[in-house]
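#struct-queue
[09:14] JT: dropping the first one here, sequence first, then the structure tokens:
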Amino acid sequence: MASPTKYESFVDETICHMVRRLDQEFSSVRRETKECQIDKWLQYFSFDAVGHMCFGRTFGFLDSANDVGGLIASVVSTFEYFGIVGQMPWLDYVLRKNPIVTPLFGASNPFAIRAREMLQERLAELKSPKATTRDDITSGLLEARESGVEQIPDLLLVSLIINILLVGSDSTSVALRPILYYIAKDRRIQSRLQQELDAAALDYPVSWKASQGLPFLDAVIREASRFHPAGSILLERIVPPTGLELPSGQRIPAGTVVGMVGWTVHRNRQVFGADADAFNPDRWLRDLDEPLEKFRIRIQKMKQADLGFGHGSRSCVGRNIALLEMYKLVATLFGLFEIKLAEPEKAWRVRSSFFARAEGMDVVLRWRKGMGLQTLREDIGS
């Protein structure tokens, strides 16, 4: 697949549409105290954004402010199922792979059915003489197939698109929630981030290139991913016949099932510092009196232990798409809005299955001084 920045215009349009919808629903003068279930809106955004990138159109979640057709719920339940059978694989043969029980689950996931329908609609459009020339992911895959660069049978094309939709939607919304939560929860962090955004004199929505020049934004996103990683189960591996020797000298015999999870690795004080159990974006920044080489070594050590998107052959295939959405959306929302938790003392809820899914983080939105819909770039549609 091409570089995710090729599809940045689709993300820009989805961000603009989300900002307009948030303004309509929550941030007008008459409704400025109306609470926003931001966890749900982040879901609507991430699903619509990846749909836009794949098909040149959204699923319509932001428009309806609702889970249209229960599609999101079907994806959530699928990942919850993965969380169970991922730890007890034998159970999958008792349930989904059991020919007697399979009919109880239905022929296919509603989200997968809708995705196939949208793919067929897009394929029909591309065959039309009046086909749009916009380069979405579907048109890119078809171009690669027709040019002979890639051999992509129809079944594989459907599978690729559905996989992209899955990894770029639900997992992204799960990763976005702790970022929004910890910035909204700490007034000091939010003010510092907004000072950085203001000093950069940004256009909105913030471009990917501009977002990569904002060190505190980067630090906050990295720290949220460290402190509350999206994945919550071990991705298991089997020790090869040669066995495995750890850096400590301990040997693990062949055939042993091993695994790591960010929720433990990310709290390693030898890697992340004595305050590893605290949310502290400054750990990703250079101290004033810290030698440059020491800083580089420290940061490299933390990045090597970062399992926010997995690692090595188990890295999330949608990582770059997720980062594109995350950096652009977070910078844009906090550049435009003051965002605070509706009930700062109330703990959010985290339900752990395949993902550590946070809920119950309602916020109150208010335009920052001088900001409004007129701040959005005029060349971007809704």
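[09:21] JT: and here's the second one, same format:
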Amino acid sequence: MEANSHVALDLLRKAHPPETASAIFTEKILHKPLRLRPTSPDPNHKDARAHRRLQRLRKKEKAKRRQKPKPLSAKEKRITGIYEISNESKKYEVYVPLYRMWLGYVWEILGMVKGKPTWVTAQTAGARLASADFHGAKLMVVRSKSVSTVGLRGIIVRDTKFTFKIITEKDELKTIPKTHTIFRFHIPQPDATDEEPDPGKIKGISNDGIGPNALVFELHGSSFEHRAIDRATKKFKQRNMTEL
């Protein structure tokens, strides 16, 4: 295409004098530089594709480190046996210190102090006990549809959603369902002679905590079918119990 018959020149001649139109056409269109992007890779990187791949891998590894570890599935827990109790640990004496620790814990949440007998009601302490952790508590089965479990007593070593696993004084591990079962446990008063409440020195600790002014509670398992971690954040309300 000749310059004199270019469509851009014809449009410029309509807006500018002939000399000005020719100058603009020559400078802006005919002699306009054409800048092309180089197709060859950066000379600083001999293999640009491998470099980009390495950058992607590093970015992926960095994002993976930021993520929280994935919790174990139920199948993985069964395979690893993290909740299994070995035969060497199935001894009542092993968990007596845990029971003493639990007494100090429950004294604290109920506000029980030495030298001052504490009396609680469902309104004052019911919600606290319902949200408490019962690992280490010593309880007894007083009523159940499963007759074989009535009378069993021991220290709770595992509190699941539907069962209590206890170690009896005969060094036996028993699994007791919560459904249609009523449990009883005692909380003794802190000894007034100690400077600090020490569960190891209270009277009646060898007799399930039954002593002077001991607090006695009954736990209805059918209304307690929650995991310990879920009870800590759950708000309990008073409701009528149809099983009574």
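[09:30] RK: nice, looked through the second one.
[09:31] RK: Helices lie at 7-15, 18-30, 48-66, 74-80, 92-110, 122-130, 228-231.
[09:31] JT: good to know. The longest strand covers residues 138-144.
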